[in-house]
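input
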Amino acid sequence: MFFYKSMNFFHPILLIKNIMSCIDEFFSLMLHGMDTYRLRIFSAVAKRCSLAAAAKDVHLTPSAVSHCLKALESEIGCRLLDRVGKKVYLNQAGEQLLMEIRKPLAALDAAAEGMKRLGKWGQTRLRIGAASSVCQYILPSVLSGVKKSFPRAAVQVESGDAPEMVEMLQQNRIDLAFVLTPDHKTGLEVRPLFSDELLFTFAPSHPWARARVIPRNEIPTQPYILYQRTSVTAMLVDEYFRSEHMVPFRIMEIASIEAIKELVKLNLGVGVMVPWTARRELKEGTLRMRPLGTRPLKRHWAIICLAGRRMNLIEETFCQLCQTFVGKLRTGRFHLGDARAGTHEKHPR
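output
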């Protein structure tokens, strides 16, 4: 699990701890019959040294403030204030009481303000799930934009394939998921983002890098370095080759795109991946790509959440930033250029 935060981030768990601490401190006061409302009025009078000025702060009449102070003194059993003309000053007992209540009153005010922030758009948490490739190549830029707009938000990221993310949505462990569009959409709201195309990926020293046409009979004989078989992408690749009546020779299954790229660079095998996960390598010329065939193998990405759930502002902003970012991605054969986008011999049907 990745957890993004800054020194100024507001975190609901800390808020709850503060509230519980306040409750503990005030419980002792309440056992002695003290009313927190009267304590706030007493604190206002101590600050202003005037019944009239304090009355304006707490939106009461001076007479009502005076009655509250007398009731508080009666509860405690001693005088708290000395009156000198129109001014009022704390005596020793009043100073002691003010010192005891100042911290819990301030903590309660902070806790109340925190709860208000929780109720405002943009001041809450962002809990998202995403495929590992999205976490690695897309989310860093998107979450950088989220942080600029919502510096106090707590951001939580979980990684996994679409079925796992759907399960986490249903368990209320995440609120949004950036994944391949699931086959079964019942109970989900799906916001399409983009489509990409899986391509053969190989080293510049591989014979396919020099060939204008990839012979069909060479495809099953190549050693392949593919993503782990249990992933949605691996299942799509297997289904594609079955439909083409091919069984590719698989020598490695790895759960890391970066590891696959490094092994492919060494010409240990051919990978199957999308251009946006190898943008740097394609630019540097350390990897080459070609289509799997005349019929493209495409994946469709979306942001999903539970049906009927209303997104808050930070979640809507996240969706918009994702849409903007993916619009700049190299997603298929037409983004590779003529030298790297050649197709192999047309598959018979």
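quick obs: The first strand starts at residue 2 and ends at 4.
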